[in-house]
């Protein structure tokens, strides 16, 4: 969110200043932008062009036209720097940085944040430093590291409380709440559920403080943020009555003000609110309409697809639920790869600051560098087995619950197989660990070859693999595992090491027991029964 806009510099010519004043006084953002663009087109002097371009950026930001703002900032920033309009320059850096974050251009966003910090430090401007921290913390969260974003913003919040000015405090509180809700979305679906709940609980009092502070700025734009963010949090906290009232107020103010960037996020929250109330048809209609928009920010698209998945699952439409979940996962993967690319290219210039503030930024920079060779935690590293490329235990814990829930919603079958290579320790002891690793990679290839694209294939540790087969009952699951058993026993393992041979044992458990943990436990017990029965066989749990 921007601070109240910097005043027009005294060096601007009277004719351009009059146009800019007229633009500022417009009730409609569209009208204000039209006048500001006219002033920019007619301006010749550097100061006139700088002031007009700055005001254009303001309107573009509030209208949610992020791509146009990023382009306009390329024009505005050099002009503002040349004209020595430092307050307007800092504002434009922040607006462009926020829009770059929303667009997934994290390298640009962090460069703008660090440039803002450099400028603030050069001028000994504590307010500017705090706002730069706030933007940088949001950048880390959007680039896949909410933990570092939270640490940076908590440090910034301590500075903001000591500084005492309302706007930097409000902006930092708001961004910290946003980082925590981003952390909640990242972790809620899997083994991080407890940490996700803590993040949600921590964010609510921050958002309530923002709501108390917002009216002091006397700007409906901030009111929309405060109402919408608290309403979003309360939906997930289960406080639906208060959430509904806040979200309806936020949407009305966003539409009245023409705040196109905020309105879709509020609408998404209303869709989640309808879902939580069990109003599935209305939630379905709203979310589908929202996703039809071509300019929806990635973060909002992810929320909408996930909510739509839950809606369809609740309605008992497994096909539509899985389609929505696939769209969510595909978009999540695309964002993860973009985050990885930006981290890999990230080179941040260290800024000179006093000792305490320099430590804060240096810690942020070191984390960015340390993460440059890693993929996003949930999607690329924490969900993937490094050796085989299959999903790992965390992937199983996360996705099995989703698949079981989708099957249960329509009473569809689902089977889980636990597969273990027989006497694998002997392979490592006799042939060496390098051969053992090649065996595991080949086993992963055979599993992938003999399973369907909809199946979840994971390596959960050592020589153990877990296969989740939606829509298959015990007989069909047995057929797949038996074919895999035969394929492994007949495979020419001698191509890896002379005289090497391998077999596997597998256990299968199937619904209608729709408990993810029980399914894996039953399949595991069946696998050990196959081992005790002589190995190289498939057993089905009762």
Describe this structure in words.
This protein has 542 residues and is mainly alpha-helical. It contains 23 helices and 5 strands. The chain has helices at residues 14-24, 29-42, 46-63, 66-82, 86-102, 106-122, 126-142, 146-163, 166-187, 193-213, 220-237, 240-257, 263-276, 280-291, 298-315, 318-345, 355-370, 377-381, 393-410, 424-431, 433-450, 474-490, 516-532; strands at residues 414-421, 456-461, 464-470, 504-510, 538-540. A 5-stranded mixed beta sheet has the order 2-3-1-4-5, with helices on both faces. β4 (504-510), α23 (516-532) and β5 (538-540) form a beta-alpha-beta unit. α8 packs antiparallel against α17 and α12 (240-257) runs antiparallel to α13. The longest helix has 28 residues, at 318-345. It starts with 13 loop residues before the first helix and ends with a strand. 52% of the residues are buried. Mean pLDDT is 84; it is low at 345-380.
Write the layout of secondary structure elements.
Layout lengths: L13 H11 L4 H14 L3 H18 L2 H17 L3 H17 L3 H17 L3 H17 L3 H18 L2 H22 L5 H21 L6 H18 L2 H18 L5 H14 L3 H12 L6 H18 L2 H28 L9 H16 L6 H5 L11 H18 L3 E8 L2 H8 L1 H18 L5 E6 L2 E7 L3 H17 L13 E7 L5 H17 L5 E3 L2
Question: What are the salient characteristics of this protein?
Answer:
five-stranded mixed sheet, 23 helices, mainly alpha, 542 residues, 6% strand, elongated
């Amino acid at each position: 969110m921007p601070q109240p806009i910097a005043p027009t510099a005294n060096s601007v010519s009277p004719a351009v200043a009059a146009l800019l004043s007229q633009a500022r006084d417009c009730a409609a953002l569209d009208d204000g932008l039209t006048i500001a663009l006219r002033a920019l087109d007619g301006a010749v002097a550097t100061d006139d062009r700088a002031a007009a371009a700055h005001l254009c950026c303001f309107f573009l930001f509030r209208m949610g036209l992020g791509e146009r703002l990023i382009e306009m900032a390329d024009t505005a920033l050099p002009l503002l720097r040349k004209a020595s309009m430092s307050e307007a320059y800092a504002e434009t850096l922040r607006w462009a940085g926020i829009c770059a974050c929303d667009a997934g251009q994290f390298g640009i966003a962090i460069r703008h944040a660090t440039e803002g910090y450099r400028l603030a430090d050069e001028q000994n401007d504590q307010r500017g430093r705090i706002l730069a921290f706030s933007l940088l913390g949001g950048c880390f969260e959007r680039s896949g590291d909410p933990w570092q974003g939270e640490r940076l913003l908590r440090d910034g919040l301590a500075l903001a409380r000591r500084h005492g000015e309302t706007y930097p405090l409000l902006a930092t509180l708001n961004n910290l709440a946003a980082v925590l809700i981003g952390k909640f979305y990242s972790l809620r679906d899997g083994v991080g559920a407890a940490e996700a709940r803590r993040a949600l609980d921590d964010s609510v009092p921050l958002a309530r403080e923002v709501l108390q502070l917002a009216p002091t700025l006397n700007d409906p734009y901030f009111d929309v943020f405060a109402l919408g963010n608290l309403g979003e949090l309360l939906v997930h906290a289960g406080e639906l009555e208060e959430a509904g009232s806040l979200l309806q107020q936020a949407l009305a103010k966003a539409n009245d003000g023409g705040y196109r960037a905020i309105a879709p996020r509020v609408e998404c929250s209303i869709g989640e609110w309808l879902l939580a109330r069990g109003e599935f048809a209305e939630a379905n209609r709203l979310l589908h309409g929202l996703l039809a928009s071509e300019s929806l920010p990635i973060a909002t698209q992810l929320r909408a697809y996930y909510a739509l998945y839950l809606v369809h699952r609740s309605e008992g439409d497994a096909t539509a639920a899985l389609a929505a979940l696939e769209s969510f996962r595909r978009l999540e993967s695309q964002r993860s790869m973009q985050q990885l690319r930006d981290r890999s290219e990230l080179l941040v210039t260290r800024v000179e600051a006093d000792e305490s503030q320099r430590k804060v930024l240096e810690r942020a920079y070191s984390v960015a560098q340390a993460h440059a060779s890693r993929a996003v935690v949930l999607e690329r590293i924490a969900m993937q087995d490094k050796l085989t490329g299959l999903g790992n235990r965390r992937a199983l814990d996360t996705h099995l619950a989703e698949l079981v829930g989708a099957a249960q919603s329509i009473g569809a079958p689902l089977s889980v197989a636990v597969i273990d290579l027989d006497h694998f320790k002997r392979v490592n002891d006799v042939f060496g660990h390098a051969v053992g690793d090649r065996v595991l990679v080949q086993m992963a290839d055979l599993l992938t070859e003999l399973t369907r694209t909809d199946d979840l294939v994971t390596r959960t540790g050592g020589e153990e693999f877990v296969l989740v087969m939606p829509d298959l009952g015990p007989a069909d699951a047995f057929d797949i595992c038996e074919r895999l058993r035969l394929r492994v026993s007949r495979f020419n393992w001698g191509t890896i090491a002379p005289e090497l041979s391998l077999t596997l044992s597998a256990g299968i458990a199937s619904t209608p027991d729709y408990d993810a943990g029980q399914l894996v436990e039953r399949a595991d017990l069946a696998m050990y029964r196959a081992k005790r029965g002589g190995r190289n066989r498939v057993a089905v749990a009762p």
